[in-house]
Amino acid sequence: MSILKLPKKVPNTPGVYIFRRGKIAIYVGKAENLKNRLASYFRKNAGTKVESLRAEATRLEWVELSSDIEALIKESELIKKYRPKYNVLMRDDKNYFYVGLTRDEFPRIFITHQPFRIENWKLKIENSSYVGPFTSGSALYQTLKILRRIFPYCTCKELHKRPCLNAQIGRCPGFCCYSTPIVNPFKPRSWFKWQNEYRRNIRNITAILSGRKKTLLYELKRAMREAAKHEEFERAAELRKQIEGIENIFSHRAFLDPILAKHRRGHDWQKIERTIRTIFGTAKRVSRVEGYDISNISGTAATGSMVVFVDGIPSKNGYRKFKIKTVHQISDVDMHREVLNRRFQHPEWGIPDLLLIDGGKPQVNAALQALQMRNAKGILLAGLAKREEELFLPGRRDSIRLDSLPPHTMHFFQHVRDESHRFAKRYHHKLREISYREK
User: What is the pTM of this model?
Assistant: First the structure.
């Protein structure tokens, strides 16, 4: 018996879905919102291929997942496992994407179609392995961009004598793209250490894209415990950072889009606002939230960012960037104070209901001083420290762990923090690139 209508109680979450004929999977897909995506299959005039799929399918099942990235990877895993016939009929095989990994001394990563037919690719990579298939190229590019923050790898097209910009901002290990040859035929021990570290990053990325996240996390946690046991604390801290990075990207439901989709904007923001008002003990309405972050390397080309969210949605017309002018030492606290002093010279930008500062108690105290200097009263203030994901409020001794808050509120705070960080970094990179070219 074919499926005639959309089943009840389909969730509004990311996930994957499977149309089956009996026990046989005939189509696998992914969705940012399962309910919306599956509803499209049961509309009138959905198309002959969809109608054919619906007529043949006898069962529809889905798996809820925590994020879009997890849905992208799970879909790839299931397509590879089942080889569903409608995935071929409804999407020409040329349109699938694959992640290619070269077998160079320092492997490179690239995205391609039809990997086994590459002949005249401009980089002439012939000896490569592949992970896939994936259905969305844009989602795949974003996923690799995020993974590269946790496991840096090289994208330089040519060798060079000076450190590349990506190495300076932690996106490239740096040692992999120098043009200076190693003259000693017996390569130094550090070279092999670097090479092993680089290849470990590539293996970890491959494991995540292949759906082996749980196994990888288990191995990283075990390695972290071993490093701590042998008092290799720097190594243990680096592993902990990688573990938190993986857990963070898989816990964000909407890493590709704003955290609040427009179709459920009002309902979700009401819940978030109620939680925020409870946290601060205020009856005042919270609508405009501003997020602030500082970006610099060794105090150079320091920048500040201001991002604006109105009723939970980014308002990019209100974004502002600041080039730090008065602080010449490495001090996020003083830089935050400068940015906020300059921000409140512009009441025409609007008055925020809540300021979310990147950092802990020192940054919050600096922001509080800036507010008092400008006589800005009635504005709520909090600091969000990345390391332990804690929220700090003025005058409150104990911090609030983000994971103790309702998921919608936790994700909202993280989204404001991540967006302010992204905006500050982008301006910082631009300034460094200008400086780099002028040398």
Answer: 0.49
